Amino acid sequence: MNYVTACITVFNDGDDELIVRARGNAINTAVDMVQLLRNRFLKTVEIKDIKIGGEQVTNDEGQKWTLPTIEVTIVKDGRQK
Amino acid sequence: MNYVTACITVFNDGDDELIVRARGNAINTAVDMVQLLRNRFLKTVEIKDIKIGGEQVTNDEGQKWTLPTIEVTIVKDGRQK
Q1: Nearest residue in chain A measured CA to CA from B69
Q2: Number of domains forming the structure of chain A
Q3: What residues contact A12, with CB distance under 8 A and at least 6 apart?
Q4: What CATH code is carried by the domain that includes residue B48?
Q5: ipTM score
Q6: pTM assigned to the model
Q7: Could you list the residue range(s) of the whole structural domain that residue A34 is in?
Q8: Residues on B contacting A at a C-beta cutoff of 8 Å
């Protein structure tokens, strides 16, 4: 819910576009948040682009693995296109 | 890993395109799986489209809520475009 507020603040400050980034288990939170924002709070918001990828991470013991990532670009007012 | 095998089987059976669908916590598994498939097993695979959405679910006690969903369309050989 804090992320929804953060997005609304960004849009209210005059920006027209923002990118929601998440990795690992937070990916579903990001998707959920974007849906909540669009369906409940700012109905004009549209998804412009979605990218998925992977990010190499290393833990304290030197083990390396790849975490899935997502980047969702949303625009404040999809009707302005 | 089973999902990676399933995708490879679908592609080997002659289909050129498939859709990976997931909801809730499985979303990050789906993203991870698509990355693993592309980076390790079938390097020609490309992501054609990604959609996110929500699905209304009801539990045994009649409570309703919306689960986030993702649909990733992948093609066997992105070079064929």
Answers
A1: A31
A2: 1
A3: none
A4: 3.30.110.20
A5: 0.81
A6: 0.86
A7: 2-80
A8: 24-28, 31-32, 34-35, 39, 47, 50-54, 66-70, 72
